[in-house]
Amino acid sequence: MKKPELLAPAGSFEKAKIAFLYGADAVYCGTASLSLRSRAEVEDNDLENTIIYAHNIGKKVYAAINIYALDENYEEIKKQASMLNKLKVDGIILSDGGVLDTIKEYAPDVDIHISTQSNVVSAHSASFWHKNGAKRVILARELHKEQIKDIINNTPKELETEIFIHGALCFGYSGRCFLSDFLASRSANLGDCAQSCRWAYNLYAEEKNNPRKSYAS
Predict the structure, then answer these.
(1) Can you tell me the mean pLDDT for 79-104?
(2) Are 176 and 117 contacting, i.e. CB atoms less than 8 angstroms apart?
C-alpha cells in the first residue's frame, strides 16, 4: 500500500518548519493576493526559504493561486507563475480554468493541483482536469468515503487524489462561499474571507400564536 502524503498549511517559514518537525511530508502556502490564504500570505523571500529548506530535508512545498481570477489579475498571475517555476515549487494549487492555462505557459515545470474550490465531486470531473494537465485533484469536502473510493477507482492511476481530514468545512459548496461577501463585503473567492461561518450566532424561533415572543439558543 502506498503511504499517503501528510500535507499541512504553513503561513510562514517558521510555521512550515514546525509542520515538518511534527511529521508533515509537505506544506502549502498562500501567495500574495492570488490565493484564498491571503491573510496568511507568505512573502516571496519566505517562500523561497521554505522551498530551499523543504527540499534539503526531502519535503515538498505547494503554492496556492486558487482565486477565481478577474482579467485584471492575470499580469500578476504571470509574474507569480514565472517566479514559482524558477523557485522549483513542487506544485501550484488552482481552481480556475484560465489560471490553469496561464500556469501551463508560465510555469511549465510545475505540477498542477486542482483546488477543492473547483468542487470535484465525480470521476468525470476529475478526469476532465487530468486531461487538461492536472497531476492531482483535491476532492470536494462534502464527499463521503465510498464516493472518494469510487472516484479513485475510476480515474487514471497517474492522477493523484487529495482529501481534507481536518479543518474548517466552509459554509458553501466545498468552500465556494458567498456568505462573507454578503455579510462583510469581503469575498472569500478572492482570498478575503471574514470567516463569517465561525461567528457566534443566536437562533430565534417565533411561536405561531405569539409572533412577538421568541427564544434564543
Answers:
(1) 95
(2) yes
93's grid cell:
494549487
Asked whether residue 165 is assigned to any structural domain, the reply reads yes
Q: Does residue 124 lie within any of the structural domains?
A: yes
User: For 105-147, what is each residue's pLDDT tens digit?
Assistant: 999 999 999 999 898 999 999 999 999 999 999 998 888 999 9
pTM of the predicted structure, to 2 decimals: 0.79
Number of domains in the chain: 1
Range of the domain at 22: 7-216
Q: What is the CATH number of the domain that holds 26?
A: 3.20.20.380
CA dist 46 and 34 (Å) reads 16
Instruction: Identify the top-confidence range among 29-33, 41-45, 53-57, 69-73.
Output: 53-57
Contact 93, 64 (CB under 8 A): yes
